[in-house]
Amino acid sequence: MTFETAVFYLFSAILLASAAMVVTIRNPVKSVLFLVLAFVSAACLWILLHAEFLAIVLVLVYVGAVMVLFLFVVMMIDVNLAVLRQGFTEYLPVGAVVAVLMVVEIALVVGPRQFAPMQVIAAMAPAAHPHVSNTRALGLLLYTTYVYPFEIAAAILLVAIIAAIALTMRRRPDTKYQDPARQVEVRARDRVRLVKMPSEPKT
Q1: How far apart are CA 60 and CA 53, in angstroms?
Q2: Sequential pLDDT tens for the chain (203 residues)
Q3: What are phi and psi of 129, to 5 degrees?
Q4: How far apart are alpha carbons 42 and 45 in whole angstroms?
Q5: Which end of the chain is more exposed for a tag (fewer CB within 10 A), N or C?
Q6: Alpha-carbon gap, residue 94 to 62, rounded angstroms
Q7: Residue 161: helix, strand or coil by DSSP?
Q8: Which secondary-structure segment (H or E) carries 82?
Q9: Between 28-48 and 3-24, two packed helices, what is the crossing angle to 10 degrees?
């Protein structure tokens, strides 16, 4: 076993363990931190596959932005998930069976070719041009061969953003709203009234 293969199995084990801790641990803050560890381990696997751009994007976007937002929301909401997870052990056997079946189906569909050791994958992969970086190759492939799926995904994300804004901005009768037009028209004498009162004599 070479050093690269050993590192690959090490990061894979860390990734699987951290992913299992995300769904089994009771503390939501620790669950988010284990998810960060899973993302970092996945980024290390991308680096081993010579996909540095994807690894950097995974760390910057998910670990640096999305997971910080998740952690902030979890700590601000302070939801007691221990009460919600009281019946977790009851559904654990069914969940484990479903997870094993999903892994078996993925392995049968993808095949052992994709799960081979690192040196086998490197030998089967086509040799890239020495003067073309993997970032440029990814961009060329994304905007030529997969340009229509990329545009469809962008349109779906745009629809999701518009729907989220529409759900947030909808008016409810039990919520108070401010009218900026009325706020601009407010005058000082309408808001402040000066009252003259006689001074009290000293005792």
Answers
A1: 10
A2: 788 888 888 888 998 899 888 888 877 778 888 888 898 899 888 888 877 888 888 888 888 888 888 777 777 765 565 565 566 667 677 777 887 887 777 677 665 555 554 444 444 444 455 566 777 777 888 888 888 988 999 999 899 888 878 776 666 666 666 777 877 887 777 777 778 888 777 76
A3: -70, 135
A4: 5
A5: C
A6: 30
A7: helix
A8: helix 81-84
A9: 160
Q: Which of 148, 141, 30, 147 has the alpha carbon at shortest distance from 81?
A: 30
Structure tokens, 175: 């919520």
Q: Is 110 helix (H, G, I), strand (E, B) or coil?
A: helix
**Taking the CB of residue 46, how many other CB atoms lie within 10 A of it?**
19
CA atoms of 38 and 67, how far apart (whole Å): 11
The alpha-carbon radius of gyration of the chain (Å, integer) is: 28
Structure tokens at 21: 């801790």
The answer to whether 98 and 106 have CB atoms below 8 angstroms apart is: no
